[in-house]
Amino acid sequence: MFQYFETNYVWSLAVAAAIEMGGKIGEIEAMCRPLVEVARQGDDAGTQAFLKAWEAGGDNLVALAEEDKAAGRLFSAGDKLNRAAVYFITAERMQAHGYAPRKALYAKFLQTFAEGARLAGEPLQRVEIPYHGTHLAGIYTPAEGVQGPAPCLVIINGLDSTKEMVYRAGLFPQLLAKRGIASVFLDQPGTGEALRLHGMTAVANTEVWASKVVDYLQTRADIDPQRIGLLGVSLGGYYCPRAVAFEPRFALGVVWGANHNWGEMQKRRLAREGERPVPHYWEHVRWVWGAADMDAFMAIAEQVHLDGVMERIKVPFLVTHGEADRQIPLAYAHQSFDQLSASPDRELKIFTPREGGIHHSSLDNTANAGAWIADWVAQRLGGRVGGTCGVPAAA
Question: Does 4 reside within a domain?
Fold first, then answer.
């Protein structure tokens, strides 16, 4: 993984994610250079300075996009706004829960992302899935070259990502669409809009909300109700298997970064084992899970494991992990795979230095890892890896 801040993994992870989402290294260098010294003070110190620098970088792109719009250069404006949105969400994600400017920046991010995608001509649609008296927000991208109902992959976040972040990383929706697979990138409870705008915290029994997603997709004429898969990124490596195990309508499952026993991992993090994904970590996890204090959080975390769950999965399932993941042990991937005893088609893929994608959720190379995953999904949902949609791919 590109480690811009040599002594600070958490800040460097944010930079690597921004690059994978389409950020430009020259713009990132201009924003990060003034932050080098403060980054040496640790994960938490200086995050407000991080916000100020990255928001300023995004604001500059917004101003340039306004000039493009005035001159009728709408595609160029859209491209700049898309990068501005990347910088805004990168800055917002690094802040402590309750830091007042965070809320305003998230609102600006949502507006910028939507306008950028529209001006750039991206074929995405916002979807709102009814849930608990309000909705779960998602980004839908249709399949390409498909006549009639298409297979669909639902992609869910981890602990600290949003649907837009995962949508941007490695051009994954385009990889799927080209293979004849529609996609929905979802802000499930505990993430993105669900958490920030509606106060929906994460739940251990993820099938509760995942079933509502399937209900919605099965009403769409452009989606084949029998070919809906689920993919989870990072902590989604827990959310996804749990949902697939207890919601039999999913046709397959994929984890992009295994997370077999996240509850156990919290005890290890208290002992300073493993890297953390965000600053202000313990405050962040209590916010995500709706825990008033550490005792309440640890009681919830005890439930977040897949022992006794993986054995219930009876559909094709892919477990992937980076060989050099510094956040979640590689052993967790083997645990999840070994317990897939009822799956008729299980596979364990460990990304190695030769192909890239060796760090957490492949943030060092989402393109290669994403293409490998997209091919695996297409081969099992009746998509294509070349040739004509619907023709089974060669093994």
Answer: no
Range of the domain at 226: 125-381
The answer as to whether 392 is a domain residue is no
Q: Please state, rounded to an integer, the average pLDDT across all residues of the chain.
A: 96
Task: Say how far apart CA 309 and CA 296 lie, in whole Å.
Answer: 23
For residue 228, the number of C-alpha atoms closer than 13 Å in the C-beta half-sphere is 25
Considering the domain architecture, whether residues 100 and 144 belong to the same structural domain is answered as no
Residues 146 and 33 in one domain: no
| Residue type (1 letter), 177 | A
Contact call for residues 182 and 152 (beta carbons, < 8 A): yes
For the cut 90, the answer to whether the pLDDT of residue 273 exceeds it is no
Same domain, 157 and 104: no
Phi, psi dihedrals of residue 4, rounded to the nearest 5°: -60, -45
Cβ distance 366 to 18 under 8 Å?
no
167 and 19 in a single domain? The answer is: no
Helix (H, G, I), strand (E, B) or coil at 366: helix
What's the CATH code of the domain at 38? Answer: 1.20.1440
Q: Give the position of tokens 């972040």.
A: 165
User: Rounded to two decimals, what is the model's pTM?
Assistant: 0.95
Query: Which domain-ending residue is among 101, 120, 139?
Result: 120
Beta bridge partners of 318: 254, 347
CB neighbourhood size of 384 (10 A): 22
Considering the domain architecture, whether residues 370 and 227 belong to the same structural domain is answered as yes
Distance CA 80, CA 59 (A): 10
**CA 23 from chain center: how many Å?**
16
DSSP state of 389: T
Strand-pair category, 223-233 with 346-351: unpaired
- In whole angstroms, how far apart are CA 111 and each of 54, 86, 104, 216? 17, 12, 11, 25
How do residues 10-37 score in pLDDT, each as one tens digit? Answer: 999 999 999 999 999 999 999 999 999 9
